[in-house]
Amino acid sequence: MSGLDLETKRKLREMGAVELLHAVEAQNESLSMSLRFNERMRMAVDEAHSAYTTGRVGGLVRRAKLRYPDADLRTLDFVEERGLDQTTLASLGSCGFIAQNHNVVFQGFTGSGKSYLGCALAKQACRHQIRTFYVRMPDLEEEWVQVQDKPLGASKFLKKYGSYTLLVIDEWLLDRPDGDFLRMLLELMERRYGTSSTVFCTQYPKKDWHQRLGSGVHADAIMDRIIHNTTWFETGTYNMREQLSSS
């Protein structure tokens, strides 16, 4: 089976079955010759599928633009010392909340690992082959300002950020949004409400959100589209930057 002719190899490449071709060529003839054809084919397909999935997940992680691409929920440091809710973390890691179009808020002091947790959850979503994107709120605002003078810029911007199955917004409410940006946030939350999931990483507790959103009708509307279907996760006061720096 491993001795494929050139024409067969060409057809496999043309069909985009490169992983299968590599798996077939890698089979050791002396070790697999005693196996039946269907067993050898199953082994080749399993190996090809694993390579395909790994490549696809890697592509999703790269396109997600994670701040911490190596973040991983499975290898968190000082979980007990930080007082992290391991049961909730395990539940979030299953990504079931995404299927339910629910949101997540990682809230805690500066340096407590909010951004890392957001990226780790985003990476877990990529492992489930879910289209994901990470953005800092200051960068989101800067991009919004830049698209204003472009044809259909605002429409394309909202379509882009409204379409991600999981969107991670880091440094949420670090600066108080106002004017056009505040109105854009309302439109974005409206588009994502009930159709996708958003992760917010912030140092501000829920009680401060309304004021930082301007305390007006836009604040009411944005809060209404977030707070009713959200898991709130406290990241505590343990300063991970200080801890990792000292180690």
| Proportion of helical residues | 55-70%
State the strand order across the main sheet.
2-3-4-1-5
From the alpha-carbon coordinates, what is the Rg to the nearest angstrom? 23 Å
Structural class: alpha/beta
How would a textbook summarize the main sheet? 5 strands, parallel
Number of helices: 14
Span from first to last CA?
53 Å
Question: Can you write the helix and strand succession as a string?
Answer: HHHHHHHEHEHHEHEHHEH
Strand content bin: 5-15%
Shape: globular
Overall number of strands: 5
Question: In terms of per-residue confidence, which ranges show pLDDT below 50 for 5 or more consecutive residues?
Answer: none
Mean pLDDT: 86
Please tell me about this protein's structure.
The model has no long low-confidence stretch (mean pLDDT 86). A 5-stranded parallel β-sheet has the order 2-3-4-1-5. Helix content is 56%, strand content 12%. It is globular. The chain contains 14 helices and 5 strands.
Set out the fold topology.
Elements: H1 6-14, H2 18-26, H3 29-32, H4 37-64, H5 79-82, H6 86-93, H7 96-99, E1 103-108, H8 114-127, E2 132-136, H9 137-147, H10 153-163, E3 166-170, H11 179-192, E4 197-202, H12 206-212, H13 217-224, E5 230-236, H14 240-246
Parallel strand pairs: 1-4, 1-5, 2-3, 3-4
